[in-house]
Design goal:
Layout: H1 5-12, H2 18-30, E1 37-40, E2 42-43, E3 46-48, H3 52-63, E4 69-74, H4 84-90, H5 93-98, H6 100-107, H7 109-115, H8 123-131, E5 149-152, E6 158-160, H9 161-173, E7 178-184, H10 193-207, E8 210-216, E9 226-228, H11 252-256, E10 262-266, H12 277-302, H13 309-324, H14 333-340, E11 344-351, E12 359-363, E13 367-371, H15 380-387, E14 391-392, E15 396-400, E16 421-426, E17 432-437, E18 450-455
Parallel strand pairs: 2-3, 3-18, 4-7, 4-10, 7-8, 11-18
Antiparallel strand pairs: 1-12, 5-6, 9-17, 10-15, 11-14, 11-15, 12-13, 16-17
Helix pairs in contact: 3-12, 9-10, 12-13, 12-14, 13-14
Amino acid sequence: MSLSPADETWLAGRGIAAGEAKRQLELLTRGATPPVLSRAARLADGISPLPEEQRNRWARLFRSHTSDVGFFVPASGAASRMFAGLKSLLETPETLAQDAKVRALLGCPAVARSLEPNRPADTASAVRTLLSPSPEGLDWPSLPKALLPFHLDGAGKVRTAIEAQMQESCALLGPGGQGTLHCSLSPEHLDRESRIREQARAFASAASCKLGFMATEQDPSTDTLAVDGSGIVARDGQGNPLLRAGGHGSLLKNLARTPGEVVLVKNIDNIQPDWRQELVLPWRQALAGIALELRRLGDALLTSAAGSSDEKEKAEAFASLLADLARPEPVDIAALRPLADRPVRACGMVRNDGAPGGGPFWVEGKGLQIVEQSEVASDLAQQELLKGSTHFNPVEMACCLRRPDGSLHDLETFRDPSRAFLACKPGPKGGTLTVLEHPGLWNGSMGKWLTVFVEIPPDTFLPAKTVFDLAHPWRQKP
């Protein structure tokens, strides 16, 4: 399996160097390397509990640093996958009319308000209105998830996911704060950037803060190759190598463009209505405070004179904070300096009540990692360790991306390329393709970052993975 010189020239024109293409083909041939789990991270062993007094202290620290805050919200995915279950039910009208989830969806205020003023009388017609292309319908499946109505605001107005993210960002900044909300959007939705920027200014004005907005698309140079069932490079209709989007790990380049002394990361669909924000804000602020303090103490060590008593003092302070955050490190300056000289992230972890799945683990040779279920080897011992996980990752992170001099770390340097994802997908001409995704953004793409995990309560987590999640009781005003 190889590429011709013409293939390499064509790929180079799309930003994919010959060496990168070769690396991808090798991965597609030999497969990804599963991370070897040592044990699940647990409270006091990789996951730090955060009593209220400590949480408040870290939140106060963040609130003293709100002059330069970034918010990165991956939002480039279309909402189409949210509607698969609803589309399926539409094929059986009798079942649709009796389905409790459908009744709850159509009865929730944000959806009901969106169907006004000419709400269809019957269930099937209402569902078709949500799903059908305009002008007959609202065409929700073609929208980015960011533009779907998630709930009503305090005045009873429909609020989309991106508007809710803006409002929460302003609440985090507080009066006088300054920040930038950065969303990844697909190319067909980038024309909405100016409109969204105006909305951000309106929210900021109401909150007496400054919130800029920027949108970027997933870099085409992060697209990946695929091979067919015979191990031959898959090709498009013009005979060129078939390229596919490289998964959310491709967004590492977008993350790097987010300004801010600290950057808060969360998914577009994990957003709460206004009346529940007080449950969320202190925890997000605390994570940001922890990341800022790790960065401060790490920078103090890096800028201390080698061999001085000051260096030893700074190393002890840095190691002490890590120990307090449930990842003890020996006071070994030779090891602590390179540990400090990397991007920082503080990640919130939610209890999973015993349900198996990906989450925080100690990984052999790699330390603390967020590992997806699909990454783990299928042998019994590794699967048993996977089942022993007590927490999962809700993608609630605070990151510091810069060196002591203010320059940006080269985030690609801290990616673990061995943790790519391989999957089987239907080919465009039939058959099956083996496709490649880059290491996940918060998995292998941050595999070499300085990472700490903090337990956060489950009521801070309110995702909308299917359209039925819009009817969650927490989204309805009490």
